[in-house]
Design a protein that fits this description.
Number of domains: 1
Radius of gyration: 23 Å
Mean pLDDT: 84
Number of helices: 17
CATH architecture: Up-down Bundle
Strand content: under 5%
Helix content: over 70%
Strand order of the largest sheet: 1-2
Amino acid sequence: MSNAQVLTERGIAEAGERPTGIRYRVLFLLCLMSMITYLDRVCFGTAAESLAKELGLEGGVAGLRGAFSAFSIAYAIFEIPTGWLGDRLGPRSTILRIVLWWSFFTCLTGLVGLQVGSIVLGGVTTVIVLRFLFGAGEAGAYPNITRAIHNWFPEKEWARAQGAVWTCGRLAGGLTPLIWALLVSGTAFSPSLLNWRGAFLLFGVIGSIWAVAFYYSFRDRPEEHARVNDAERRMIDSSTRTLGHGKVSWSFLRDYNIWVICLMYFCFNYGWYFNVTYLPSYMNERFALDNSSLLGAIYKGGPLWAGAIACGLGGWIADWLTRRIGNRFTARRIICVFGMSGAALCWVFAPTASSMHLFFVLISTASFCSDLTMASTWATCQDLGERQPGVVAATMNTIGTFGSATAGWVTGWIVERSMFVRAEELNTTVKELAAPEKLAASLAGYQSVFQGYVFVFILAAACWFIINPGRNKSKAA
């Protein structure tokens, strides 16, 4: 570690120059981006029931499994190329393209099924194509955020910065069902202000406004920002890092740690994706709710609210535990094994919860436990990536997103298959099933889905016993 890296703000101030805090303004922009990312992701799951009814889908929300998976598949395919672009060209231009692209397709989603004269604008296939293009556009968002953090923050602040970004994303995701209830569904306290189409348009415009602010406020590195003084540059000490515009090496793929952390993240995403896809409709079915229920909106967002707290707390705990035991990788392993094991335990009991309140507590606790690992996971990517953290983070997120895609498809298939099997037993069709029979079959399918979450979280915990970024990097951050 260079002498510049060990300078503290106090030491620099004593030398006569107090560092500017532009890096925190950068973090604020990145946190807003993370919030908009989750707002636009989660709103699709919240709108799924309305969309399924609009399109007349026989299997209900389960009939949108292709759309849920299309987003994840596209996200996975384009994650590494977009992470590579961030390392190669710098995060500024890459992030601008990402946000403007996904905002455009968010707006277009609101037009699906709209009747203009005698023409109906698209059906299920159109939704799948739009979700694929949305995923292609949003791919690389977090790897490029990681690249920006790598450029703008000293190593000792990486975990906390990552924790702040993920906290804001999860918080926005948790607020989305409540925002949807207030804007679209209406509640006992307020009327509906927009239909679901107008909400998609509004969310797309918000992303575009953010992109304009980002364009004028962000630069790829501190050296390019006119308002960063020398003291803050020395504190960040980015001189030893390749800050974009460099050649990307793929030799990191020979490191077994990369593949183990990718497997871990596949399992994590498989178990977590339910929170932003099927959870709203599942709670409506099981507990006889609708999207206008204020308590229901809070409960549907609960896992992401709990995750928001955990993401920030996980970064703080990682830094604190590192100082206590003197090894940042051991500290991260402890946090991640605890978090994944806790999530598995919660999913053992959640399927048989006797009330909506207990179910809410269990799935929120599961989300809290798993999200405790986020700051440590992404900070470990920065260590594994060294001079090219964007493409390494993108690799992990690619495999993780295939976990989301698999979960999106498998969940819908199992639930829909459960209904078809019940219809065959009664010698009828799913469409003609009595409502109680259809509901019972759907919930039975979800029971099978939840058992899979226990397994994947246990496997994710096991992976952290293997991950070891390097004995030569065992020093504390």
